[in-house]
Amino acid sequence: SNEAVAHRRASGEMLEFGHGLEDLLGGQVRAGLAIMDLYEDSWGTASDHPIDSIMPSFIATRAVGWAASE
Questions:
Q1: pTM
Q2: What are the φ and ψ backbone dihedral angles of 53, each rounded to 5 degrees?
Q3: What is the rounded distance in angstroms from the CA atom of residue 69 to the CA atom of residue 21?
Q4: Which end of the chain is flanked by fewer CB atoms within 10 Å, N or C?
């Protein structure tokens, strides 16, 4: 809710948002794309972001259209 977001911002708490890999990758495949490559990244080595010590924060894919042969 807007109130929850306002409270988190006012108290300096982290806001979290994301999509699951099923939504990200599955959505691309269902749209007819072939995933050719995947890249993970973080905020960087001098990061103050606690998540960087656990896992990469970002993901990018290279997906191309393909014609299915029957």
A1: 0.57
A2: -80, -10
A3: 27
A4: C
